[in-house]
Amino acid sequence: MGRCAPDVAFVWRAVLTLGLVLLYYCFSIGITFYNKWLTKSFHFPLFMTMLHLAVIFLFSALSRALVQCSSHRARVVLSWPDYLRRVAPTALATALDVGLSNWSFLYITVSLYTMTKSSAVLFILIFSLIFKLEELRAALVLVVLLIAGGLFMFTYKSTQFNIEGFALVLGASFIGGIRWTLTQMLLQKAELGLQNPIDTMFHLQPLMFLGLFPLFAVFEGLHLSTSEKIFRFQDTGLLLRVLGSLFLGGILAFGLGFSEFLLVSRTSSLTLSIAGIFKEVCTLLLAAHLLGDQISLLNWLGFALCLSGISLHIALKALHARGDSAPKPLKGLGSNPDLELLLRSSQPEDEDNEEEEYFVAQGQQ
Predict the structure, then answer these.
(1) Which of 54, 128, 207, 296 could form a disulfide with 91 if both were Cys (CB 3.0 to 4.6 A apart)?
(2) Cis peptide leading into residue 365 (ω within 30°)
(3) Nearest alpha-carbon partner for 46 in 291, 246, 198
């Protein structure tokens, strides 16, 4: 009996982890293919993103209310000075990252999007060095070179390459580097009280919506106002189908954030990062099989080179975390750009049971 108990506990833990990973895969891969599917017939990705933000805000507000009623503890509400000074830069960068990522689906395939977006860790490392969240080491230089080389190889002579879409998603990856650096700095300020992901999403969504609105007004406002699918609709059934499809995307984005949180809170941020690598491979295989995306041998080699850089970065983080004897806040961000990325707790002595800090990136998204 004594031996059976640990075995049962281990099997249960493994089954639970596998279930959480599969749940995360469903939401993450699902929203990627959803965005590509919807933009084929609905050519307003910025409007789509704004509706997703509204849905996430509503669900996060509802979740806060339910938690407050059950725990009888008031949720954090930031003052206007803190809100505008501390949260606004992160919200603007996040809105541009998500908006440009969804915009790129108008021009490029899922495979090229997935490959290019995986390079976001390159910009995360660069901005981590600029803001002195990382120390310059030879291993980091090697990581940057591997990812940059992989980025060049998997876009070189791609048969489905589109410069406009590539520029959009690469710009999103660049802004993503700023986004996650600012996110880390925001969440490390314990006095703000935004460690809970629901509170973070609740505070970020309104400013993200407002930050994306000028871009929407310039590029999509006039066209949307004359579109028969929305404002000048003549078929009520078509309008309801479009709104239903947009609402579904908001649910997927919210579910993605929660699935990441569940996975990290039950395992670790390292588990999510490793799972993210296999998720990218699964996305590429599905894109080639279901959508007929053409991926050459050189593209695959470039992607493998990029993944080797990401894997090296994860391994270095794991070794660095084990080598630290005293509790310290994590100095770098996780390595998966499409994950909606995590920050480790500053008190990691009981890693398996603690609630890990993280921030959700919608859509990618």
Answers:
(1) 207
(2) yes
(3) 246
First-to-final CA distance of the chain: 47
Using the predicted structure, report yes or no on whether residue 234 has a pLDDT greater than 80.
no
Radius of gyration of the chain measured on its C-alpha atoms: 21
Give pTM, 2 decimals: 0.75
- State the greatest distance between any 2 C-alpha atoms of the chain, in Å, as a whole number: 71
Identify which of 219, 231, 263, 199 has the alpha carbon closest to the alpha carbon of residue 24.
263
Q: Is the pLDDT of residue 337 over 80?
A: no
The CA-based angle 364-17-339, given to 5 degrees, is: 15
- The model's pLDDT over 156-180, given as tens digits with 9 standing for 90+, comes to 655 567 889 889 999 998 998 888 7
CA pair distance 215, 219, nearest whole angstrom: 6
Q: HEC string of 278-331?
A: HHHHHHHHHHHHHCCCCCCHHHHHHHHHHHHHHHHHHHHHHHHHHHCCCCCCCC
d(CA 52, CA 250): 4
Is residue 107 within 8 A of residue 165, CB to CB? The reply is yes
